[in-house]
Amino acid sequence: MTKEVEHEITVQAPATEVYRLIAEVENWPRIFPPTVYVDHVERGENEERIRIWATANGEVKNWTSRRTLDPEALRITFRQEVSAPPVASMGGTWIIEPLSEGESRIRLLHDYRAIDDDPENLKWIDEAVDRNSRSELAALKTNVELAHAAAEVTFSFEDTIRVNGSAKDLFDFINEADRWQERLPHVATVRLEEVSPGLQILEMDTRAKDGSTHTTKSYRVCFPHHRIAYKQVTLPALMTLHTGYWTFAETEDGVAASSQHTVVLNTENITRVLGPDAGVAEAREYVRTALSTNSRATLGHAKNYAEQQH
Q1: HSE of 157, CA atoms in CB hemisphere, 13 A
Q2: How far apart are alpha carbons 12 and 105 in whole angstroms?
Q3: What residues have CB less than 8 Å from 169, skipping those under 6 apart?
Q4: pLDDT tens readout for residues 231-247
Q5: Which phi-psi region, left, alpha or beta, contains residue 49 (left: φ > 0; alpha: ψ -120 to 50)?
Q6: For 7-60, what is each residue's pLDDT tens digit?
Q7: 152 φψ region: left (φ > 0), alpha (ψ -120 to 50), beta (else)
């Protein structure tokens, strides 16, 4: 027996913008707090398969979904390829309806079945879908409105260096973060937990130039030997979001090793952290310099390591 339910919420953002944020999966770590990383397995014009890594009750899980995109009707249908017990099948539709130029309604439809149509299992799924849909839509409302309003405080940048070594050695250096304490001068302590192959929880204390240390926690998804993506979940005062990835691309003259960051500034804390005269431009410069300094230092040590193995 298939059960069908619907949840909805109204948001202060244009319907086409809301559709775009949900359709472009690279936005998901920004608009869905539990999402760590999403990538495409297959991609056609309006059909795609995506892999999603997300936290649930402090654990990171991943699954694959098929999606059909309809930009004309502002609809996206989705279906999990393999559902986790007690769910036998799970799918649904996002429908975005314009209410006015700057306001829209998001409707989230689900249809699902329990294994063996077990009534206890169905009740468990009912509760999980209801709870998750409500919290997902509430978070989506907050984050879509923020993303729409925060265009000028959202920015990305990348640092790249050339390395005369192999992508595998560079990947290993970044992947083996449990050894950073001995390998990187700005890292004071490290706690690395590999939840399952390629899925990591990284906590570390890093030293700033003034000698102070601060603790960061990130979830990392590692793809040997070319990419490590992460989402930082403990954020310093000047950021409300920090995601990024390390990439290692073989070229004709060695390897291009890059560190990319996407940041949303926390405007409420700018004057408290940087003084009464500081604004968005100063905060942007400060955050970019801090992140870039650490990335470049780490890339430099990775380069030395890889070139010594060569």
Answers
A1: 15
A2: 9
A3: 305, 306, 309, 310
A4: 999 999 999 999 999 99
A5: beta
A6: 999 999 999 999 999 999 998 998 888 899 999 999 999 999 999 998 876 678
A7: alpha
